[in-house]
Amino acid sequence: AMSGLGDAGILTGAPKQRRLVTPYQSVLPELVAFWNGAKHKQRSMIYSDTRTEWYQAFTAHLRAGRDARVVFDHSQSAGHYEHPLILQLIKDGAVDGRDFVIGTSPESGALCHIKACWNDDTVIEDGSLNWSKSGLKEINTVSLTTWPAWAGYLNRIFDEAWQFILANEKRYQIGGASQ
Predict the structure, then answer these.
(1) 74 near 102, Cβ under 8 Å?
(2) Other CB atoms within 10 A of residue 167 CB
(3) Which mean pLDDT values do the consecutive 10-residue runs of the chain (179 residues) have?
């Protein structure tokens, strides 16, 4: 179980937010700019990521020495669309267990269904959109939010999921997560 999050309560506030709905707005240019926009730190948790633009941005962050890490969902990471992109990420220098992990939700052991990326503990992109070609053609929400409190809450979710995956889900890792 994710022990610390219940203590955090329900987050309320009035953040600065921009909300988009695909396919009615063209969100890819904004997503690409966002994915490339971290100056120091980036975290991502994603259920389905087959956008080469995200992988390119993530690799660029790692090469620039930024603190970039991602949690991939285990069911999607093993698929024939996402798995080759993760293998390429490894060829480009990313290390399983240091830069990314693959796992599930600690309570159910099923999916890690969140779709979020946050930059510099301040700005968040989240919503129902899978980062895929088909996701942009379907009705999905994308929120771009400036709200450090939400980024902090997501950091707690990320950190607890990361630790749970490293401790309990080595079977989903591609290699290196035993570090």
Answers:
(1) yes
(2) 9
(3) 58 90 94 97 96 97 98 92 95 96 86 94 97 94 96 94 94 70
| Two tokens, residue 159 | 């950190």
Structure confidence at residue 105 (pLDDT):
83
Taking the C-alpha atoms of residue 39 and residue 133, their distance in angstroms, rounded to an integer, is 27
CA 117-158-111 angle, 5° bins = 85
Q: Measured between alpha carbons, how far is 176 from 179 in angstroms, rounded to an integer?
A: 6
- E strand intervals along 63-150: 67-73, 100-103, 115-119, 123-127, 140-146
**What is 28-67 written as a DSSP string?**
HHHHHHHHT--SSEEEEEES-B--HHHHHHHHHHHHTT-E
4 phi, psi to nearest 5 deg: -85, -15
**In whole angstroms, what is the distance from residue 96 CA to residue 174 CA?**
7
Residue with tokens 């620039």: 64
Give the separation between CA 88 and CA 68, rounded to whole angstroms: 16
Question: What is the Cα–Cα distance from 66 to 95, expressed in whole angstroms?
Answer: 14
For residues 25 and 141, is the Cβ–Cβ distance under 8 A? Answer: no
Q: How far apart are CA 45 and CA 70, in angstroms?
A: 6
Q: Do 35 and 140 form a contact (C-beta atoms < 8 A)?
A: no
